[in-house]
C-alpha cells in the first residue's frame, strides 16, 4: 500500500473543499472496499478524508411516510431496522444477502453505493483494463466472463456493479442526496450509476468532491409486497450472478403496480422498465410474467462466457413474481 | 505518515504510534503482540481476523487503525476471563477444528453473532423479515457464520458447537 495522509473533516464543506483541491484525495467510510483496493494498489490516494462521523448514522421518518437513511448508517443497522424490515422487506433482504455479518457491521450506505466492480482485471494492476487505466483495453472481452454484463455494456467495458443494496433501492425509487462544491442535489438512484459507454472509468454521475449525505425512500406503495432473490455460485458470502428485486401489487387478478430491478447483469442496478410496462394492467399470471421477462431480456447481448445469465435472469424474475403472487392470495 | 492512537485491547489500554497504513489486525499482531486474531487472506474474504469492536464483530484486516482511535477491541484471547469462554469450551467438546487457524475468528464471530441474534437481527434465511424473535436453527447458524471460512472444513462440528451455546 502506498503511504497516505489521514484526516477527519469537521464539516461537510471542508471535506468537499479538500477533495476538490487535492486531486489525489479520497473519502473513507467503512473502508471495506477502499482499503482492499489500496492494498492492491488499484486505488492510490495520497489523502484519506474519513467521512463516517461527518454524515448521519441515523434512520429518520420523513413527513410523507418515507425514510431518510444517513450515509454512515451501516448495512447491519439498516437491515435490522424494524421499519425497513416491515415496510421495505426487499431492502433488508438485499443487504442481508450481501457480504458477511462482519463486513456489514463496517460497511456504510454511502460506501456501498460507491463500491467498485469486482471484475478480476480491474482488481489486478498487471492486466489491461479501461476502467482502471483508460485506453489500455478490456481484458474481459477475451477472458473471464462469468460475472460480466449482459445489458447496457459497451466494447470498452462489460463489468457489472456489485451492490445488492443498490438493486433494492433502484426498485424502491430511492433518491440519493449529495453535497457538492456548489449546492446540495438530489439524484434518483436509477440515475446515480452510469453505463460504461466510452468512459468506463466513471462509475457514477457524481462530480469530483461530491459527498453522499443520505438516501431517501418514498413511502411504501400501497399493498405492494416486495422481495429480493439472489442467485450465486455458493449459498452465501458471494456476489450475485443474477439478482432480482421485485415489488408487486395485484388487484382483482391483475397487476396494479410492479417495480423490478436486476443485479449482476449491468454496469448499474438495472431497472426493468420494459418488463414493468408489459405487466402494468396485465393479468397476474405466469404467462404475463414470462412475456415481461422476455421483453426485458430481448435487449440482452451476452458474451460467450455468460450467455447462461439470460435464462437465469428470466427464470429468476418469473419465479420471484410467482412467489409474490402466491403470497398475495 | 505516523499518528499516535489509543486502543483498548482485551481490557488493557495501549498508546502507540502507527503508520496510517496499519490495519487493526496488524496493530494487534505486529505491534501489541496479540496473535489471537489471524491473517488468512488480508482481503476480507475469510473471517480469520474477526474482532469485536465496541461489541460488534468486524474484520481487522480491512479496518485502518487510525480510523478507529480509542476503540474497544476484544479478541478470542480476551473472551477467556480467567477460565475459558463457553464457546471455547464448546468448540473443544465438539472437536470443532483441525488445524485451529480459523478458530479464534470463528469464536469471536460466534460471540458477535449470538449477540446480534439476541437483539433480534434477521438473516438472509429468516422466513419472516418482520419477526423480532430469532430461532437459531442450524440453517440460521450456518448463514450467520458464512463470513468465517474453515479450510479444514470443520463446519459439521462448528455448527453444533455454536448451537449448544445458543440453545442454553
Ligand atoms: C469479501 C467481500 C464480499 C462482499 N460481498 C458483497 C456482496 O455480496 N454484495 C454487496 O453488495 N457487497 C459486497 N461486498 C462489498 C461491500 O458491501 C462494500 O465493500 C461496502 O458496502 C463498502 O462500504 P464502505 O463503507 O466500507 O466503503 P469504503 O470502502 O469506505 O468506500 C467505498 C467507496 O465509496 C467512497 N465513499 C464512501 N462513502 C462516501 C460518501 N459518503 N460520499 C462519497 N463517496 C463515498 C469511497 O471514497 C470509496 O471510493 C463485499 C465485500 C467483501 C470484501
Ligand atoms: S470489463 Fe471493465 S473493469 Fe473489467 S477489464 Fe474490461 S474495462 Fe476493466
Ligand atoms: S484476514 Fe481478514 S478476512 Fe481474511
Ligand atoms: S480448523 Fe483449520 S481452517 Fe478451520
UniProtKB/TrEMBL annotation, chain A:
Pfam families per the UniProt record, alphabetical: CO_deh_flav_C, FAD_binding_5
GO MF assignments: FAD binding; oxidoreductase activity
Keyword set, alphabetical order: Oxidoreductase
Keyword hit for 4Fe-4S: no
Keyword Oxidoreductase (UniProt): yes
Domain FAD-binding PCMH-type: 1-222
InterPro entries: CO_DH_flav_C, CO_DH_flav_C_dom_sf, Diverse_Substr_Oxidored, FAD-bd_PCMH, FAD-bd_PCMH-like_sf, FAD-bd_PCMH_sub1, FAD-bd_PCMH_sub2, Mopterin_DH_FAD-bd
Name the UniProt record assigns to this protein: Xanthine dehydrogenase family protein subunit M
Organism: Streptomyces malaysiensis subsp. samsunensis
Automatic annotation (TrEMBL), chain B:
Molecular function terms, GO-annotated: 2 iron, 2 sulfur cluster binding; metal ion binding; oxidoreductase activity, acting on the aldehyde or oxo group of donors
Superkingdom: Bacteria
Residue stretches making up the 2Fe-2S ferredoxin-type domain: 3-79
Keywords, ordered alphabetically: 2Fe-2S, Iron, Iron-sulfur, Metal-binding, Oxidoreductase
Pathway noted in the entry: Alkaloid degradation; nicotine degradation
One matching Pfam family: Fer2_2
UniProt keyword Iron present: yes
Presence of keyword ATP-binding: no
Database matches in Gene3D superfamilies: 3.10.20.30, [2Fe-2S]-binding domain (1.10.150.120)
PANTHER family referenced in this protein's UniProt entry, alphabetically: OXIDOREDUCTASE WITH IRON-SULFUR SUBUNIT, OXIDOREDUCTASE, IRON-SULPHUR BINDING SUBUNIT-RELATED-RELATED
Protein's UniProt name: (2Fe-2S)-binding protein
Native organism: Streptomyces malaysiensis
